[in-house]
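Revision sheet: structure tokens.
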Amino acid sequence: MHANGFPEAESGVAVYKLRYWTPDLNGATSIASAAYVIPLENCSLPLACFIHGTQYVKTDAPSSWEDNSGAVDDGYTLGGDGFACVLPDLLGLGDSPGHHPYLNAAADARTCIDAVRAAREFQLQQTDSLNGQLFLVGVSAGAHTCLATNEMMQEQYPDEFKVTAAGAVSGPYAIYPTIKDIMTLNQPFITGADLVYILLGYQAAYPGLFSSTSDFLISPYDSILPPYYDGMHTAGQIGQHIPNVPSTMIPLALREDLSHHPDDALNLRFKENNVYEWAPQNPMRLCYCGGDITVPPFNSILAHDSLVASGGTSVGLFELSTTADHGQCGGLARPFLNNWFRTFTTDCLGSSNTGTMLIQPNPAIWGKSVISIHLGGSQQGSGTVQIMDELGRTVMEQAFSFLDGTINVSIDLGLDRSPGIYFVQLMVGSDRYTGKLVVARNGRT
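Predicted:
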């Protein structure tokens, strides 16, 4: 790690490439790829999912793992800080065939969820296990995907995923009205290449939305631009063919429809891909920088206010700099979010940063059992206990009270559960305690 420019790393890392199955835009099974970083520690590990920003070139995806490029710095940093870290390439990037469905909330979220599943399965083959904690982090377009992934995990897979905390940096959360404005206002924007990226992705994702590229690009842009979105051309190469005022590429009829009809079919698709109208149940931080003209701060402010108004109870908004631009903001956010994530993590022995706990009996016997958890001392109070399996899935959660530091928990690990290693996590106020529980059949694992 020192040789790679991370002198403050607390552990070395091993880096792997994962290939896994995920649905394509049509729901058919397709190959996807991701990088996976494992700290060289002898302990159970928290898992982080880092989601990269805008990429045009397939081979720039994280699984290519080129030092000093893209998401690699974030993978090294999270790994060096003790997090196992999966970095999805996303559909259409890395080994995934076809075009990338840029800023498609549902498609990107599904790919990230399957990347987390792939990382959990791969980790079962390793010496160290995962401790059940799951962190999400995304930058720029990846911040949009971070919120979409968090929402899908919470709303559609609550028994499989419980996000510990999420951090998002400079994300275009408000697809509507942002993209509509770029398409209709007679103003210069530096994101014209991204606009075409979105429209081509929507053409592929939503059959019937457009009959041809000419529906959303006038000549000669309708024929000149699409070949550049082949996964082999950079943003700079594409940008040479984009006018300074992107709306001049858009047919007048479409501009008028978008301006005057909020329920126009394309406006509705933009609204469908907004990611801020839900209530996060886990802690979340939205970061931005005041000098960002690529993704203006109002995206983060709007998202924060909406998430809180929807019922999100622990959503923070942080301006990391009043002058830093879009590219600089990600570098500022990396230590800010990583240090915050570390306040949630447990140490390698399975105890928390605030104390230790003893689980008895351990091993427990498969079936309905009562385990006793002792925190030490004469503490008393109440809290929540969670039991998770090796894939980080919650198999039981309940409130408890304790006296003299001892909690008796009745757990049911019957025919629908398997003998093996489980993780017990207690949350008592702001304190967190984690330990391993071995469940054996007839006294043997």
